[in-house]
From TrEMBL:
The keyword Repeat does not apply. Pfam families: Aminotran_3. Residues 1-20 are annotated as: Disordered. This is (S)-3-amino-2-methylpropionate transaminase. PANTHER family: AMINOTRANSFERASE CLASS III, LEUCINE_METHIONINE RACEMASE. GO terms for molecular function: (S)-3-amino-2-methylpropionate transaminase activity; 4-aminobutyrate:2-oxoglutarate transaminase activity; identical protein binding; pyridoxal phosphate binding. Belongs to the class-III pyridoxal-phosphate-dependent aminotransferase family. It comes from the Bacteria.
Amino acid sequence: MTQVQSQDQSGTGRRFARVTGELPGEKGRALLERRQRHVPKGVGNNTPIFAERAEGALIYDVDGNVFLDFAGAIGTLNAGHCPPEVVRAIQEQAGKYIHTCFHVAMYEPYLQLAEKLAEITPGSFAKKTIFLNSGAEAVENAVKIARKATGRTGIVSFTRGFHGRTLMGMSLTSKVKPYKFQMGPFAPATYKAPFPYPFHKPASMSEEEYAAFCLKQFEDFLYTEVAPEELAAVIMEPVQGEGGFIVPPKSFVQGVYEICRRHGILFIADEIQTGFGRTGTMFASTHFGIEPDLLTMSKSIAAGVPISGVIGRAELMDAPQPGEIGGTYGGSPLGCAAALAVIELMERDRLPERAVEIGEHIRSYFSELQKDVPQIADIRGLGAMCAVEFADPATGAPAKELVAAVTKACCVEGVIVLSAGVHGNVLRFLTPLVITGEQLEEGLSILGGVLRRLTAPQPTIGV
């Protein structure tokens, strides 16, 4: 895909990012005024810009500025903005029919996508898939299916996990603000078990000892909080997203999986953010050597077209009776067509392998930058799902204010990057996997410059 390159007239030599004047600009300010009049303030915005168009890893705003997108619509655009093949697939489908409701008049793209997913998702067993609209809907339906299939009610999620903003999604989510504050009561029969945080492991423990300790905590949880006979499912993000891109020890994930097997508890892998190439494989569960009973997906499945799904063992998926799961817009023809084109693009261009290269470059860059920026406390990730955690080097306290300042300053310089973590002190990277090497290097260079400037020692003023 041809990338439009822009030469910064200020003489910095930038080829892509370009911001002239204030943010937002004149057109953006007019739109912002309308937004403030008509859209609730509870609908948060990470940047003050209004997009006019986007391509690959670039966003062009209404005031003529160009941004390198390191956020990817919160992990939705692994295939990039407006891949031509996906755009054509949407256009062709829209010319035939936009919506018939699968419950009223079925259509082949739904079947084609279900068949393709059965091929590429983990698990060597027969699978079936239901398509929905959003990640939260996928989680809700995975819980319904698990309860119906097992006859049990309990659902276990993990500390720092994120599973959506609906009632069940909030109930399973661990971060209180901004997702749950003053919005209870929450769904009953939901429980939260401790999740590993390798960066914060006791210094006296080896990685293996820490993994064993965390697994023992989970085993104890089944004695102290809820009996395994009451549990329908455990739901886990293979790599925690909103929680700060926490990569758990492989032995912990496998241990929880085996405990579920032993007690007849279903294992739900929430791959809404980790799926479709982000971690270096099509699905992150593969890294951990597990075959989830149910797997939820959304975000990058269709390059931004709203669609989600639950895929799982055929006998489990068949537990609900006709009409018990579904929805008017679930599995829209446009979403199915877009998803099929995205998967073909990912396989053809080997985007999961590209994710490994991107991740290695990001982590290497920050490892070098850490020599100049002692507030960089941890660099982690799997594939291109990377994060950098910041803390006060003297006290170890989370450096939330620094991260907030970095995201704001980067936007002003033409790079969109997001924070994460329960303390807001983590920078997360969700660059489109089609980002070029030059674009990635330019964005990291801008980010590094911002960090050096914001963390530079302040000169002492003599009396």
